[in-house]
Design brief:
The chain contains nine helices and nine strands. It is of the alpha+beta class and 308 residues long. A hairpin with a 7-residue loop joins strand 1 and strand 2. The longest helix has 19 residues.
Length: 308
């Protein structure tokens, strides 16, 4: 299925938009020209993750040229999408059956409408409370509402804008590539993943043996001791925890893979210090994962300190 046409009426700074779509459209423009509004208009029609409340628009969502209170005059917001190339998918054919507007080529139209509903007997005049939204298919004069359970068959994936591309991609938790990489890991050969894990372990060990890294670890340990005292001082072992934690997660074929960073080891060591009241042992930063269907991982821990 592909989008072939988009029309938007009275939505924010998009009014009278009527554009054909072909191939893989790319929207380019300066800030505040309406790129995000265009994407949101499409989401109003297709996105199953958008809640009913989010589809309930406000006065601020009407175009500015309509005046201060466009709802008082019954003005509507409409977004229509036309789609093609779905005839070979029985599920989509069943979903879009009542939305078809052309048979050659086979084309369906979906429309989001935010406008006045029928007034109750005790209601006088139009207001925000008299408005509602609906999504229907087909021509306006023969429209059929398409409920959420049917719309869920229309695949739509929304990726938020990368306002800070470098930061978002560097963070495993926020990275838009995370789900793609996790799926790629699940589809990969377990033996190849095991080789990758071993290579990462060797690379991490090599980094930890660099003279500059050892010197930095020594200085961090000395500064920690100066700040918190000898009783709570640490002997840190600095490794590429954050980077390899993300890589190790990819190298495991299940989401149960657990990895730690230096901070986790520091907390574990500090906990042992509190219980034993003796100098904390050297914290350990590990990423131990066995790839494959029966993947298992164990938590990084610091050795128990001797009792005083």
């Amino acid at each position: 299925m592909r989008l072939t046409h988009l029309t938007v009426t009275n939505f924010r700074n998009l009014d009278g938009v009527d554009i054909p779509l072909a191939g893989s459209p790319v929207v380019v423009g300066e800030n505040r020209v309406g790129k995000s509004n265009l994407v949101h208009a499409i989401r109003l029609v297709l996105d199953p993750s958008l809640s009913n409340a989010a589809r309930w628009l406000r006065r601020e969502d009407f175009s500015d040229h309509l005046g201060d209170d466009p709802m008082a005059s019954g003005t509507e917001i409409r977004v229509s999408l036309e789609v093609e190339d779905f005839g070979d998918d029985p599920g989509l054919m069943a979903t879009l059956h009542h939305a078809v507007v052309s048979g050659n080529p086979l084309r369906a139209r979906l429309t989001y409408r935010f406008g006045p509903r029928e007034l109750e007997e005790d209601e006088e005049g139009l207001s925000a409370e008299a408005y509602g939204w609906s999504i229907y298919g087909g021509e306006d004069d023969e429209a059929r509402r398409i409920p959420a359970e049917l719309r869920s068959y229309l695949h739509h994936e929304h990726l938020g804008a990368l306002r800070d591309a470098e930061g978002d991609l560097a963070s495993w938790r926020r990275s838009p590539l995370r789900r793609l990489l996790e799926q790629a890991a699940q589809d990969a050969d377990p033996e190849e993943l095991e080789l990758l894990r071993e290579a990462l372990e060797r690379a991490n060990a090599a980094v930890a043996e660099l003279g500059s890294v050892k010197e930095l670890a020594r200085r961090v340990g000395e500064e920690t001791g100066r700040l918190v005292g000898d009783l709570h001082a640490l002997e840190p072992s600095l490794q590429q925890g954050e980077l390899l934690a993300a890589q190790a997660r990819v190298a495991c074929s299940t989401s149960r893979c657990w990895s730690s960073n230096w901070l986790a080891g520091w907390r574990a060591a500090r906990s042992n210090t509190r219980s034993s009241r003796s100098r904390s042992p050297k914290p350990i930063c590990t990423r131990i994962c066995s790839a494959g269907p029966s993947a298992s991982c164990r938590r990084a821990t610091a050795p128990s300190a001797p009792r005083s």
